[in-house]
Amino acid sequence: MSAQVETERNENAYDFRAMEAKWRPYWDETKVFQPTGDAPKGRKYVLDMFPYPSGDLHMGHAEAFAIGDMNARYFKQCGYDVLHPIGWDSFGLPAENAAIKNDTHPKEWTYKNIETQAESFKRYAIAADWSRRLHTSDPEYYKWTQWLFEQFYKKGLAYRKDSMVNWCPKDQTVLANEQVVNGACERCGTTVTKKSLNQWYFKITDYAQQLLDDMEQLEGKWPDRVLLMQRNWIGRSEGAEVRFEIEATEDQAAESFTVFTTRPDTLYGATFIVVAADAAFAEQIVAPEHKAALEQYREDIKALSDIDRQSSDREKTGVFTGRYAINPLTGAKLPVWASDYVLADYGTGAIMAVPAHDQRDLEFALKFDLPIVKVLDVEGAEDPATSGVAASGDGVLINSGELTGLPKAEALAKAIELVEAAGTGEGKVIYRLRDWLLSRQRFWGTPIPVIHCEDCGEVLVPEDQLPVLLPDNLRGEQLAPKGQSPLAAADDWAIVPCPKCGKQARRDSDTMDTFVDSSWYFLRYVSPNYDKAPFDPQAMSEWGAVDMYVGGVEHAILHLLYARFFTKVVRDLGLIKHDEPFKALMNQGQVLNGGKAMSKSLGNGVNLGEQLDKFGVDAIRTTMIFASPPEDDVDWADVSPSGSQKFLARAWRVAQDVTSEPGVDATTGDLELQKLIARTVHEVQGLLDNGKFNVVVAKTMELVNATRKAIDSGAGAADPAVRKAAETIAILLSLYAPYTAEDVWHALGHDTPVLTAGFPEVDPALLVDDTVTAIVQIKGKVKARLEVAKDISEQELQELALADAAVQRSIGDAEIRKVIVRAPKLVNIVI
Ligand code: ANZ
Ligand code: ZN
C-alpha cells in the first residue's frame, strides 16, 4: 500500500460528528470560556453585536461570529483573561406581528427563537461565557433600561415635544427617517404620511461636539469609513445667523427672523429669501392673497421625505408669500418665498438665497425668474445665469461693499464681524444631528416609566417600583395598534394612582425604540445578574470599555452613535470613567451567493443548518474565515467547504501520526522545520494583529503540508520538531476550527483545553538567518520594511506587503494600479 493511499484512508477517520459530540460538554465542564479574573497579561473584552431572534441562525451570523470568535480566541491564546459574552436584542416589531398573527403573546415567539439560536450558537462553538447571557426583553434587564431613562430625564436629557413625524398608516406607528424608503414604510411598503404627535426624545444634540471630538480616540482603530459616516451624520456646519426684517404692509406688521448661512461672505449676493413652507413661520407671514396657494402647496409636499425634498434631481417648487425682507447690510428689498427645499428643522428654517453661488438657489431663481447677482469672482467659472451652474468655488469678492477685494476666507470672517458690529447677526455653529426620537406606539418594547397626572404633570415612576412590567394578559389582536398604542387601550394596566398626589393618573403608554436597549447592553455584560444598579461598579472598573467590537457596517451610524451617546451620559452620571464604549471596531462583510445578497425572493439562500450537517462546524467556520479578509464579502458560490474539510482532515491526520511524547525538546529536532514553525508563528501574529484572518488559514495550510512532508519523507514522525509543528497547528486551528483543534491537542497527549495552551513563543534566532529585509515602496517612497524569508514567493511577499498596516494606511482609498514584486527584497506599489 503506498503512503498516499494510506493517508487518504486514514483521513477518512476524521469524524466531525464524533468530535462535535465529544468536545462540547468538555468546554462546559472546564468553563474554559469564562473569565478567570486572574490572567497575568490583563483583560480583553471582545463583543459581537448581539443578535435579533428572528429565527434560527443564518449564514450572516455564521460569518460574523466566526470572526468575532477568532478575536476572542486569539486574545485567550495570548494569555489574556477574555470576556466574550452573548445575549439577545429581543424586543421589536417582528415578535409583535407574529403574535398578532398567531394569537399569542410576543414573548412566546421571542423566547422560542432565542432557544433555537442559543442551541445553534453552542453547536457553532462560539467561545462565549454563557453564564452572562442576557435578553433585553427580560424584566431584570429592562428595569435598568427604565432606570437609565429616569436618570436621563432628571438631567434634562429626555423630554417630550410635539413634532411632525413620519407615520405609517398601516403599521400605525412612527418611523424614523431611515425607516422611510422612497416615501414608503421600510417594513410594509405603505406610503408614509406626516402626523403631529407628542413624542419622547433624547437630547443627543447636547453631545454633538463631544461625539465629534472623541472620535480622535478611535482614529486608526475604527474603520475610516465608519468614522466618516459618523462625522457626516453629526454634520457640523460653521457659519453665521443673520437677522432680517420683513417689511410691514397695510394689513400685516413687520417681522424679524434669522437665517443660518455657511456663507455670510455672500450676503451682497442674496437676492431673495426662502422659508420652509411647512414651518409655522411661513403661515404667520404669508400675505392674505397668497394664503390659499401656500395652503395648497403645503398639502402637496406633505408626503415627501426630507431626502426627497432636498434631492437635486427634483425640479424646484415653491410659492411667493407676498412679503419682502430687507438685507441688513445693503438695505436691498428681497422677496420672501416658501419652498420645500428648505427644511423646517435645520438651522433656522429660513435661508438667504444666493443664486450665483448656490446651486439649489440658482435652480430656484431660474425657475421663478429671480435676480442673480455675482459677488465672488471664481476663476474659470461660467456665468451662472446662462450655464445653470452656480459658481461654488473659491475666489475674490466683488460688488460687496467693504468685502470687495477680499479672498473668500477673509471675507467670511469679515462678514461675521460686520453683522456682529451692526447687531444683526453672529457667528454660529450648527449640527445636522437631530434629537433622538425614542418613543414607539407599540407593545413589545421597554415601557416608558412615566405617569401622567392631571395635577402634577409628568411624574417618574419611583425607582423602587421599577420595572414597569409589560402586561402578560394581552395577546393576538389586542396587540394590534389602532391609532394608539395597545398599552394605552389596556386600562387595567394604564390607570394607576399618581405617585406624587395619589389622584387617578395614567401610565405613559409608549415603549422605547429598541435602539435604547442596545445602547447599553455592553455595560450590563460586566455583571449581568447584578440587581442594585445597571452594573456592578467593581466589575465595571475591571472590564471597562470593549476592546474589540465586531459587527456589520449597517450599524455604522445609528447604533454606534447611540451607544457612544449613552456611554458619555453614563460617564457624566459618574458611573463609568471611559468616554467611548468600543476601543476598536471590526466590520465584517456580507455573505453573498452568486454575487447577490442571499434572499428568499432570489431563491439563492443557503441554509446554515444543512451546511453544518454536511460539512461540520469547523469546515464552515474555516471556509468563512479563509474566504476573504473579515471586512470583505464572502460569496458562497466561490468557496469550497469540502476543501476546508479536507484540509482539516489532513491537519488532524498529521497529529495522529506524531509518535514522540509531549514535552520533548523541539530544539533537538529538524532545523528546517523548526525555522518554518518560527516563521509561521511570527507572521501569523502580525496577520492576526492586522485582522488578516484569511491569511492565517493559508499559513496553517502551509505548515500542515510541510509537516506532512517531514513525516513522510524527511525527519520522520518521531522528530521532536514534528511534534512542535503539530502542536502549533493545533493552536492555530483553535482560533477558527475549535473541535478539530481540541481533538488534535488531546491526540497529542495533552489533557487541558487547547485554548489554554498559550500562543507559541518564537526563538528569534530561528528567524534571523533565513530572513532578509524587504522594502515596500509606494510612489517611490519607503512605507514599510518587512522581515521575510529569503525564499519567500512573489505571491506571499505581495500578500504580506498589502497586509501591512502602514502600507494600508498610505494606500487609503486609492486604487492599486500595479504591484511589482522582486522577491525577496522589494515590493513597489503603484496607486
Ligand atoms: C447662503 C449660501 C450661499 C449658502 C452659498 C450656501 C452657499 P450645510 O453645510 O448643510 O450646513 N441652508 C441653511 N438652512 C437650511 C435649511 N433649513 N434647509 C435647506 N438649506 C439650508 O448648509 C448650510 C447652507 O445651506 C446655508 O448656507 C444655507 O445656504 C442652506 F453660496 O446660505 B447658505
Ligand atoms: Zn399627581
Automatic annotation (TrEMBL):
Its main location: cytoplasm. GO terms for molecular function: aminoacyl-tRNA deacylase activity; ATP binding; leucine-tRNA ligase activity. Residues 231-417 form the Leucyl-tRNA synthetase editing domain. A motif ('HIGH' region) lies at residues 51-61. It catalyses: tRNA(Leu) + L-leucine + ATP = L-leucyl-tRNA(Leu) + AMP + diphosphate. Its EC number is 6.1.1.4. GO terms for cellular component: cytosol. It is found in: Cytoplasm. Residues 25-218, 430-636 form the Aminoacyl-tRNA synthetase class Ia domain. A motif ('KMSKS' region) lies at residues 597-601. GO terms for biological process: leucyl-tRNA aminoacylation. Keywords: Aminoacyl-tRNA synthetase, ATP-binding, Cytoplasm, Ligase, Nucleotide-binding, Protein biosynthesis. Residues 675-795 form the Methionyl/Valyl/Leucyl/Isoleucyl-tRNA synthetase anticodon-binding domain. ATP binds at residue 600. Coiled coil: none annotated. Gene3D superfamilies: 3.10.20.590, HUPs (3.40.50.620), Isoleucyl-tRNA Synthetase, Domain 1 (1.10.730.10). Belongs to the class-I aminoacyl-tRNA synthetase family. This is Leucine--tRNA ligase. The gene is leuS.
